[in-house]
């Protein structure tokens, strides 16, 4: 079943390509690249090479074949040229930032011209890239460009960019700059528009006294690390369930990377990054979840009297620096014009538009603004084979940008750490330096409010590893984007700096459900058989599609509407809710594609988001089971059900509409629901509201790369699902093949060993050289 294809040619110098960047000092000289790309079912590539440069070459080539147009669009973004090709007003290619093309271009051009990334990658390791990382990046770029040259822009397999003038080769600087954006995802990347639109106040201009607000990136995750006391064997297990965008540059690419005797890792890499960020080796598996630790700290600047572009620190005047950036913009008539913006900076970071008055201004300082060592960390983790080695990798490079780590190994050790980069802001500073603004906002006029240092920190201004929340267990650790506090309720984490997150506060319904699923499985009370996890029960737990809000409140709502068969809608009209009661009573409280009642329940919750929805409030002594009980004394409850029935009738949507008829992606029924509703399998349509056609808009984010791994003495056994499939190319056979599996709750067997790979009936291989 082997199909061999040999591609050879002398490698072209990268510096001959448009916008190429010279290889940084310390990188290996350019030579020939060799890799074998072995594909198994669903197009999953298993890349094997003799060295890191060859490994990167094979991955870059495979990734380009599957997703060249998404990456080509990203390269336009990194060049600050989206307005030139696509106009200024459309959203850029990154759904996690929600930025217009024009704002994105100004931001990118300013960063590119500042040379910040060039300076950072010129540093020696550990702050700059290691030799192995440089080799992987060099090879990745060469592989991507090799596919582009071999295929030709006019013959690209994806019609999205076939023949497009904006398709260009990749450079090494592109990869590092893309990483630089990834690490600032929970910080400055969310403030692009306020940064590029900041201007000093002028007479007659609208007041901007309101402090800035930093939105959170639309990203999250669930993860379990299960130790030997929670499994049916002697080894550990990991469940990875990141919630990331289903479209654009924020997608994951499933890949295995192997250098015999040196590296063997499989899992998922964010588009454009040449390393596995979530995955497993032979005896270790790990995942990441978005952490609650602050990445961005705001500083309120006290402005110098009479000059809104200068500020005071300890009574001394400092002038803001300014940079003017000009970008090319294509108008509706196709003609290009120039648009210029001036950006303002302070000692703390960029100055923001909102809140800039004649008295105060706000600046944002991102803790990851000097972090290009994230790839060092991930490569060291990709080489790790135990929890101890993973911890050493993270402590050595300290580059995890904004996530928790949940891991387990074949000895049955489970491990949690918020080893992410966190600003060194003490609890005392949070109290004494706090001023008006988004949390945390510190007083920029006092040097005592500057970030501190730790002796074990890799750079000034961050907390060292010894201060980070960590927990090692032989039963389990979990996280679903709440703070470290209840990683395991039997061993609450406390005493860490407040900047990492809170304690003693309500947990999300998704966190509570995740903990309850573990509790029931360990007790054997979930209907899945004898207590303890194995691969089958872990998969079934993940895709059980329970809805905790329904489990907590549905029966009480049914009782209420049976007592009140007619309820008053918001517009004052009476609504007969008897059919709604029957539908909800018959619903299985799950969000499977065939579940009848899930749509009605979501419409009810959309209108019932009252602070008084729960009758029993949160109790810190019972944090996993409170708040609870439906507050039927609140009139909003009855109105919400009446409104839901009324709205569904107006859209001609049956009250018992199956969820899969309303929630879809590319025409495929999708299970799950938004995490705030209480679903572990978090799924987010573009809007929470039913549209005029009676369906939700297509799913745009949520469960993405799902991985269940059992680490046995005989090696890893695992199953995966890439929910939106391996290729963004609509013409690819692997565009929605795994999406259909996800709809049917089926999994892909993880093929890790050579024997497993070559035994796959879909096995085929390509040898690439350059």
What does this structure look like?
The protein is of the alpha+beta class. Among the domains are: 205-214 and 296-366 and 424-461, Roll (Penicillin G acylase, beta-roll domain), CATH 2.30.120.10; 549-670, Aminohydrolase, alpha-helical knob region (Penicillin amidase (Acylase) alpha subunit, N-terminal domain, Orthogonal Bundle). The protein is 27% helix and 22% strand. The protein is built from 19 helices and 32 strands. The strands form seven sheets. The protein has an eleven-stranded mixed beta sheet with strand order 1-32-2-3-6-7-8-9-16-17-19, covered by helices on one side. Strand 16 and strand 17 form a beta hairpin. It is globular and about 70 Å long. The two termini are 26 Å apart. 55% of the residues are buried. Mean pLDDT is 94; it is low at 1-30.
Helix content: 25-40%
Q: Could you tell me how far the N terminus lies from the C terminus, measured between alpha carbons in angstroms?
A: 26 Å
Structural class given helices, strands, pairing? alpha+beta
Low-confidence stretches: 1-30
Strand runs, count:
32
**What is the helix tally?**
19
CATH class of the domain at 549-670 equals Mainly Alpha
Whole-number mean pLDDT: 94
Largest sheet, strands/sense/barrel: 11 strands, mixed
The CATH superfamily of the domain at 549-670 is known as Aminohydrolase, alpha-helical knob region
As a whole number of angstroms, the C-alpha radius of gyration is 26 Å
Strand portion, in percent?
15-25%
* CATH architectural name of the domain at 549-670: Orthogonal Bundle
């Amino acid at each position: 079943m082997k199909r061999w294809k040999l591609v050879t040619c002398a490698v072209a110098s990268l510096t001959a390509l448009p916008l190429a960047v010279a290889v940084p000092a310390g990188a290996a000289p350019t030579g020939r690249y060799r890799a074998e790309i072995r594909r198994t079912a669903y197009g999953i590539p298993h890349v094997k090479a003799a060295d890191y440069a060859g490994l990167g070459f094979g991955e870059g080539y495979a990734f380009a074949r599957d997703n060249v147009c998404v990456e080509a669009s990203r390269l336009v973004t990194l060049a600050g040229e989206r307005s030139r090709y696509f106009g200024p007003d459309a959203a850029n290619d990154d759904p996690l930032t929600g930025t217009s093309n024009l704002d994105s271009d100004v931001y990118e051009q300013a960063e590119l011209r500042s040379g910040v990334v060039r300076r950072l990658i010129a540093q020696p390791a550990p702050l700059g890239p290691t030799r192995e990382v440089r080799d992987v990046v060099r090879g990745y770029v060469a592989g991507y460009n090799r596919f582009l040259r071999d295929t030709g822009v006019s013959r690209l397999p994806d019609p999205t960019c076939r023949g497009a003038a904006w398709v260009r080769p990749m450079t090494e600087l592109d990869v590092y700059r893309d990483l630089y954006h990834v690490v600032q995802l929970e910080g400055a990347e969310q403030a692009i528009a306020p940064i590029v639109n900041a201007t000093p106040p002028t007479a007659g201009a609208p007041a901007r006294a309101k402090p800035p607000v930093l939105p959170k990136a639309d990203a999250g995750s669930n993860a379990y690390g299960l130790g030997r006391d929670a499994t049916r064997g002697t080894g550990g297990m990991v469940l990875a369930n990141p919630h990331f965008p289903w479209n654009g540059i924020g997608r994951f690419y499933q890949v295995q990377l192997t250098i015999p005797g040196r590296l063997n890792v499989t899992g998922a890499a964010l588009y454009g990054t040449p390393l596995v960020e979530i995955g497993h080796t032979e005896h270790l598996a790990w995942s990441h979840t978005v952490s609650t630790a602050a990445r961005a700290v705001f500083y309120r600047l006290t402005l110098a009297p009479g000059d809104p572009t200068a500020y005071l620190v300890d009574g001394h005047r400092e002038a803001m620096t300014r940079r003017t950036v000009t970008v090319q913009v294509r108008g509706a008539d196709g003609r290009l014009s120039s648009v210029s913006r001036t950006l303002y900076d302070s000692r703390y970071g960029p100055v923001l538009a909102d809140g800039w008055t004649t008295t105060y201004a706000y600046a944002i300082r991102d803790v990851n603004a000097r972090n290009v060592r994230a790839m060092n960390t991930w490569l060291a983790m990709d080489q790790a084979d135990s929890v101890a080695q993973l911890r050493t990798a993270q402590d050595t490079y300290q580059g995890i940008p904004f996530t928790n780590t949940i891991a387990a190994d074949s000895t049955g050790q489970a491990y949690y750490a918020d080893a992410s980069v966190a600003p060194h802001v003490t609890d005392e500073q949070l109290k004494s330096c706090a001023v008006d603004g988004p949390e945390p906002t510190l007083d920029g006029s006092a040097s005592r409010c500057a970030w501190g240092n730790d002796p074990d920190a890799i750079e000034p201004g961050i907390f060292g590893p010894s201060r980070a929340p960590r927990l090692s267990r032989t039963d389990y650790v979990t996280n679903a984007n709440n703070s470290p506090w209840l990683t395991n309720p039997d061993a609450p984490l406390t005493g860490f700096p407040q900047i990492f997150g809170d304690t003693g506060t309500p947990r999300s319904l998704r966190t509570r459900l995740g903990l309850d699923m573990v509790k029931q499985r360990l007790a054997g009370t979930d209907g899945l058989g004898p207590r303890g996890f194995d691969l089958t029960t872990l998969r079934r737990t993940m895709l059980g599609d329970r809805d905790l809000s329904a489990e907590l409140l549905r029966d009480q709502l049914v009782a209420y509407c049976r007592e009140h068969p007619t309820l008053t809608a918001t517009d004052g009209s009476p609504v007969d809710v008897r059919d709604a009661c029957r539908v909800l009573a018959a619903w299985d409280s799950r969000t499977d594609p065939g579940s009848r009642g899930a749509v009605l329940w979501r419409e009810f919750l959309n209108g019932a988001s009252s602070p008084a929805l729960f009758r029993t409030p949160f109790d810190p002594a019972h944090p996993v089971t409170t708040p609870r009980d439906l507050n039927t004394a609140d009139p909003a409850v009855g109105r919400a059900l009446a409104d839901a029935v009324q709205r569904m009738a107006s859209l001609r949507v049956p009250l018992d509409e199956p969820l899969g008829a309303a929630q879809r992606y590319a025409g495929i029924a999708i299970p799950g629901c938004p995490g705030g509703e209480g679903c572990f399998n978090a799924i987010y349509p573009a809007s929470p509201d039913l549209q005029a056609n009676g369906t939700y808009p297509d799913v745009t984010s949520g469960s993405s790369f799902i991985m269940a791994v059992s680490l046995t003495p005989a090696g890893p056994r695992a199953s995966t699902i890439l929910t939106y499939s391996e290729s963004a190319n609509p013409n690819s056979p692997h565009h929605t093949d795994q999406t259909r599996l996800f709809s049917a709750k089926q999994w892909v067997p993880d093929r890790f060993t050579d024997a497993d790979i070559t035994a796959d009936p879909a096995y085929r291989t390509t040898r690439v050289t350059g």
